[in-house]
TrEMBL record:
It holds the Pfam family UPF0425_C. It comes from the Archaea. One of its GO terms (molecular function) is L-seryl-tRNA(Sec) selenium transferase activity. The keyword Phosphoprotein does not apply. It comes from Methanothermobacter wolfeii. InterPro entries: PyrdxlP-dep_transferase_arc, PyrdxlP-dep_Trfase, PyrdxlP-dep_Trfase_major, UPF0425_MJ0158-like_C. This is TIGR03576 family pyridoxal phosphate-dependent enzyme. Keywords: Pyridoxal phosphate. Residues 276-346 form the UPF0425 domain. Its cofactor is pyridoxal 5'-phosphate.
């Protein structure tokens, strides 16, 4: 294994950022194609800029955040956090009791690390499952349901509704981790918003499938939002005015047709590629770590192969994916999100040849340990 711990992941990410910096130096921003689906848009205008102060900002943006946030997620009230992970941590700390249980249902394991790590910090017994028939453990104080996984595996509305109903009957609050699901489920699968299905809380990332900044937006019951918010203030997990301003802009400008256009691009690309290791996601394509291991049959782990392929895509073609530049703990699946703003600029033909070239190049270095290491860590 080349990537053994979180320090290696940080090193890999820093190498990716260095390659991005160099490509931007050589070719400008147009030399980079961010297909992570996490565009981190930060559009502000002149009027917004004048308001980015600690107390002035919230006074102005708070009202617009409530309006745009509730329109997007439903619920009675919303609150903004530094990241989705911060919102999840604040909710777990605010709602659970130490020693009680937190059960997490998700369409496919594993969970985003923020849920189990928050449970650990809150001294809560954690259990995750993809079997929705599993009963709640004794003394459960919070039920978490993931609407769409990091790899964009989406829950069915009937399962989501059923688990929310069961938790309601048992008097246990439900938090839906709808980081990408708040848009994938509603726009592509025509599902209802989590709060409309009865969820007590739902959280989404304003960075996923919308042109907003990395930030977490939580909606739901006003009493619970207030509790989660006060916990967030204690630990500095809440979004600061510049972030809130950009979240408001992104929510106000959200246009589902950007996501629907990705469906057309995906169809075109899948038709051209015809490779069993390339699988479909709701808004793009992916190559799983297991598929890479099967394909290359080498001594490297699927994660190492994925990191190397992601680095080649970045260095040779300027394509950013999460296994190259993502945060430690993020999924190592190579996912090309065709709803990303840069996907239109690249086009299906160029994506196909970048993938084919990169997979060929990886085959050429897998027997050379030092080349593999250099590719990943620089
Ligand atoms: C992305 C994601 C998160 C965390 O989002 P951050 O903004 O990175 O904190 C949590 N859960 C799921 C399912 C996600 O996809």
């Amino acid at each position: 294994m080349l990537t053994e711990d979180i320090m290696d992941e940080v090193k890999r990410r820093e190498h990716a950022l260095e390659i991005i910096r160099k490509r931007i130096g050589d070719h400008g921003r147009s030399g980079i194609y961010d297909l992570t689906g996490l565009s981190g848009g930060f559009s502000l205008d002149e009027d917004d800029m004048a308001l980015l102060e600690t107390y002035v900002g919230p006074a102005v943006f708070e009202e617009r955040l409530q309006e745009a946030g509730v329109r997007h997620l439903g619920g009675e009230k919303v609150a903004a956090f530094n990241r989705t992970s911060s919102a999840i941590l604040a909710a777990v700390l605010a709602i659970t009791e130490p020693g009680s249980a937190l059960i997490h249902y998700l369409p496919e394991m594993p969970s985003h690390p923020s849920v189990p790590l928050s449970a650990e910090l809150a001294s809560v017994r954690y259990h995750e499952t993809d079997d929705f028939r599993e009963p709640f453990p004794e003394d459960t104080s919070l039920v978490v349901v993931t609407g769409s996984t990091m790899d964009h595996r989406v829950i069915s509305e009937s399962l989501l509704k059923d688990i929310i109903g069961r938790a309601g009957d048992a008097g246990i609050p439900v938090l839906v981790d709808d980081a990408s699901g708040a848009r994938l489920r509603t726009v592509i699968f025509n599902q209802r918003r989590a709060c409309d299905l009865g969820a007590d809380l739902a959280v989404t990332s304003t960075d996923k499938l919308m042109h907003g900044p990395r930030g977490g937006l939580m909606a739901g019951r006003a009493d619970l939002i207030d509790r989660v918010k006060s916990k967030a203030y204690q630990f500095g997990l809440e979004a600061q005015p510049p972030l809130i301003a950009a979240m408001v802009r992104a929510l106000e400008d959200f246009d589902p047709s950007d996501i629907l256009e990705a469906l057309e691009r995906k169809g075109e690309l899948l038709e051209m590629m015809d490779d069993p290791d390339i699988e479909e996601t709701p808004t793009g394509i992916m190559i799983r770590t297991e598929s890479l291991r099967r394909r290359y049959g080498s001594t490297w782990s699927g994660e190492d192969l994925s990191a190397a392929l992601a680095m080649i895509l970045l260095e040779d073609h300027g394509i950013i994916t999460i296994p190259a530049a993502g945060m430690p703990g993020a999924s190592m699946t190579i996912r090309l999100d065709l709803a990303a703003a840069d996907a239109g600029r690249l086009g299906a033909e160029a994506i196909k040849s970048a993938l084919t070239d990169s997979m060929r190049k990886l085959a050429g270095i897998i027997d050379d340990a030092s080349a593999m290491r250099r590719t990943i860590f620089g």
